[in-house]
Amino acid sequence: MSCGIRHVLKCRGANILPSFGGSCSSVQRYSRPYTMQQQQQQEECLQVATNVTEQKHNVSREVRGQNLGLCRGFRGCTVWLTGLSGAGKTSIAFELEAYLVSKGIPAYGLDGDNIRTGLNKNLGFSQVDREENIRRVAEVAKLFADSGVVSICSFVSPFAEDREMARKIHKDADLKFFEIYIDTPLEVCETRDTKGLYKKARQGVIQGFTGVTQAYEAPDAPDLRVSTEGMTVRESTLKLIKLLESEAIIPKFLKEDEPLPELFVAESLKTALEAEAKTLPALALTEVELQWLQILAEGWAYPLKGFMREQEYLQALHFNCLLNEDETLRVNQSVPIVLSATEADKQRLEGVSALALQYGGRTVAVLRKPEFYYQRKEERCARQFGTSNRAHPYIKMIYESGDYLVGGEIEALERIQWNDGLDAYRLTPNELRQRFREIKADAVFAFQLRNPIHNGHALLMSDCRRQLLERGYKNPVLLLHPLGGWTKDDDVPLPVRMAQHQAVLDSGVLDRDHTVLAIFPSPMMYAGPTEVQWHAKARMNAGANHYIVGRDPAGMPHPDKDLYPDGNLYDGTHGARVLKMAPGLDSIEILPFRVAAYDKSCSQMAFFDPARKQDFDFISGTRMRTLARNGENPPNGFMEPKAWQILAEYYQSLQKSQ
Hints:
alpha/beta, Rossmann fold, Sulfate adenylyltransferase, transferase, ATP-binding, nucleotidyltransferase, chloroplast
């Protein structure tokens, strides 16, 4: 045989009959023997090349694993789902695919019908073709797995011999292969027969249909047996997720129904920790640092376990992300959460095993194994804020803080209480998650704000709920989540904002039954697109899966107002654009903010229509404050009257005090 090609004649003594309108994978062996003519028709002459040599890639699996997806480490493998038609293979496969992709793990579902319309559309239903169908799929899955992708194959594949061939293809390539038996009773599969294939098979219209006129060879020892009877797709898929976690294909993520780890000392150990703290040297916290301690202790910044050590600080500052403990997963952490110390503090405390953190002379936490490192303030500010201008209020605080940072794991003695009449609104992430479960929310959309609510905001939030309902959610709930930490002097104080927000809810402008009003205890940094990632990540930890982002989130005017044409520190569109691209925020969907303005034609807030821009009035914050200070009312429909009254009284009190 020339050119290094040998001819191989392959034929099997089984008759193959196609189904009518059904899945190709549902057509199986038919027991009648071949006639001579049929056998001749089924014989195929395959050309097999013998002069080929495998070419090794320059990129190793280890290198692929370090650079492919958000989770470090090689995770390529094949998950092979087998079972009767209607068992639920494809539904589970695509649910698993969506879960993996949402966690930053590359995955792709290879479905039997999809393969037959492309790669294998030239194959018929002869025994040779059907074996070749499975062989090709297994080879493609192997290539996907070798590239670092989790390949998810959903095929009836009723014969143990074919499945074993697929396993061997992977074993020979030193790749993991998981055979998953979707064990759904035949009678249940028949009830799911939306195409009527089982009915046609019972009537004899379709011959050789698996489970009716042809047997299914159930796996004797699958890697996992999954029942779908009486279970949701999600519940069935969780079994596969647990298997892949146990095999280190999936890092162990925090589950939606698991409590978020907090950094409070256990009640049984509190007395001992208090006694220990009395023996430790102390470091005083500022009010803003106490707010960051609250953030850490309650789990908003999970998986951080304390104030950042230098390694964590560098990751946050330069990559806006942190690596988890085994360095397999990147989680978003766009802002440094750090504790400052002076040169004198460093000289006094460096080398101690632990220190007490105090506020107002009272110990609030213990910090273990403190690590001191130099704070390059200009570098920090330039990377976090895009400027080092000291007229920026948070940058001013950084420059006034100590020249060193100190990191270490913390144990908080108890919850931080501010005793301002608003502590009942300061729900922790775990408390919010529990609240959402109690009201049976199937979607939570969060709205971050540090300003009073006008009817344009309410329109936007109501419209988001409408969109989620149209997408099939039954009970989407709004997390109305004003920022409650430090803000600059000219922002409206938290007590005034909370009273104003309550007035909006009381008026019915927002639906109280589908709204949770709570306080987010973070300080405000005015760091634009960098900070808005932190705002989204913290709400994700609290159970939100949708996040509303508006124009110029976390922005402010540039201290040098002549530097940029619009006078602002950040481009107004960059926050929303960055959020959609930010790594480590895969569990939360970003909902863009539609622009609303006052529609003079109907005396209410409405979404801006460029076609009739003359009808719209954009009422700026400066104009709103001027009206409030002068005791004037805004146009009817701009803000709920009682909410406006609260705001106006605040600004008038400022004017009187001045």
